[in-house]
Amino acid sequence: MFILYSHSVRLVGKHREVRFSYQVFEQYLLDEVLGGVHPISVSMKQFTDHDTFKMTYREDVTWSELCNKLNCKEPQQRIPENIKIEFGDIRSATEAKKALATAIGYIRAGLGRGSPNESLVRFMERIGCFSEQANSAIPDSLKKCHVLDAWYLAYFYKSYRSTYDPFDSVDMVTTFPPCLNEWIDGKNRKIIKIWLMELHRFLVDWVVLKAPADNENSVSYEGWEMMDCLDFYREQALLARSEHEKPELPDLPDELLYEHSVAFWLALKEYNLRI
Question: What is the mean pLDDT of the chain?
Answer without folding.
Answer: 78
